[in-house]
């Protein structure tokens, strides 16, 4: 009886150990595929799961985004230049069932597929286009890989070309070409700068000459205006003096006034130093009075020309 009880406890312990071995933990970024005797049964989400040991099996599938490194390889461009190219592929699982059962080694399959299509894409481009069209190459390669891996339950998120390296002699020739092009641009830029400077200097000289000519013309105009104003003022003064003399002659006795005017005109001839004889009228009192009156009128009008001084 004791042997039966001992055997029962041993079997119970073995069953507990086997039952405990059936508990599996599925993490939040994983999916679990349950197989029953080698046949797919169902897909379970994250959490604590129990599967019957030896009868069922739980296969975990990582659903996070993964990276595949494509090894460097030599590719011939359209213009027959051999370049070394490598890339990286970013993908994520969309269907864990297809990823597990439709492809045996997904990493190897997608690597070989990327290498083959990389040769095709770059082989359709010249060297210059391949070096400057990485975005185009990335987009084309991603589309090809995404379509090809769809039946494997994955989605290619993006493809990045890491390096496109031409041979050493081609690289050196490209450096020389780049240096020559930069030297040409420098010469052109320097010539354009010198041309612009000359044009600006010529325009500055022209504007300076124009401003100087305009200044001289303005000065001449102002001088002419001043001289014209002076002549007009003197003429107006002479006119007012003549009018006053004329009024004085017609308002009073014209005889003394006419004699005074003639006397003043004679004084101009005497003052020039050519006269040898001087005749004075006998009645000088009236004549001097008229001369005094005319002098008074001329002093009242400063714009008129004063008569010559008889004493000079």
Summarize the structure in words.
- The protein has 312 residues and is α+β, with helices and mostly antiparallel strands.
- Among the domains are: 2-62, no CATH class; 66-166, Band 7 domain (Tetrahydropterin Synthase, Chain A, 2-Layer Sandwich).
- The protein contains 8 helices and 8 strands, in the order αβββββββααααβααα.
- It has helices at residues 2-21, 96-101, 106-123, 127-132, 134-148, 168-251, 254-271, 284-300; strands at 23-26, 30-36, 39-44, 47-50, 56-62, 66-76, 82-93, 154-165.
- The protein has a 3-stranded antiparallel beta sheet with strand order 3-2-5.
- Helix 6 packs across helix 7 and helix 7 (254-271) packs across helix 8 (284-300).
- The longest helix has 84 residues, at 168-251.
- The radius of gyration is 61 Å and the shape is elongated.
- The N and C termini lie far apart (181 Å).
- 12% of the residues are buried.
């Amino acid at each position: 009886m004791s042997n039966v009880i001992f055997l029962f406890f041993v079997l119970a312990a073995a069953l507990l150990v086997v039952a405990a071995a059936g508990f599996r933990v599925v993490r939040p970024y994983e999916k679990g595929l349950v197989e029953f005797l080698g046949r797919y049964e169902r897909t379970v989400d994250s959490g604590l799961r129990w599967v019957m040991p030896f009868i069922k099996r739980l296969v975990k599938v990582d659903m996070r985004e993964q990276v595949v490194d494509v090894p460097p390889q030599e590719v011939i461009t359209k213009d027959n230049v051999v370049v070394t190219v490598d890339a990286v592929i970013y993908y994520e699982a969309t269907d864990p069932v297809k990823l597990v059962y439709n492809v045996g080694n997904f990493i190897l399959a997608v690597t070989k597929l990327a290498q083959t299509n990389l040769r095709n894409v770059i082989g359709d481009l010249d060297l210059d286009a391949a070096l400057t069209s990485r975005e185009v190459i990335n987009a084309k390669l991603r589309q090809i890989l995404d379509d090809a891996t769809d039946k494997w339950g994955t989605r290619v998120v993006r493809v990045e070309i890491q390096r496109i390296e031409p041979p050493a002699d081609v690289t050196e020739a490209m450096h020389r070409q780049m240096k020559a092009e930069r030297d040409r641009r420098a010469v052109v830029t320097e010539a354009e700068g010198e041309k612009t400077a000359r044009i600006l200097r010529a325009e500055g000289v022209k504007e300076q000459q124009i401003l100087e000519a305009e200044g001289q013309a303005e000065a001449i105009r102002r001088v002419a205006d001043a001289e014209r104003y002076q002549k007009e003022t003197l003429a107006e003064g002479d006119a007012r003096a003549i009018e006053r003399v004329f009024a004085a002659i017609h308002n009073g006795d014209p005889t003394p006034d006419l004699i005074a005017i003639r006397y003043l005109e004679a004084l101009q001839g005497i003052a020039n130093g050519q006269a040898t004889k001087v005749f004075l009228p006998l009645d000088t009192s009236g004549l001097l009075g008229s001369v005094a009156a005319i002098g008074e009128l001329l002093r009242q009008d400063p714009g008129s020309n004063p008569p010559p001084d008889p004493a000079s």
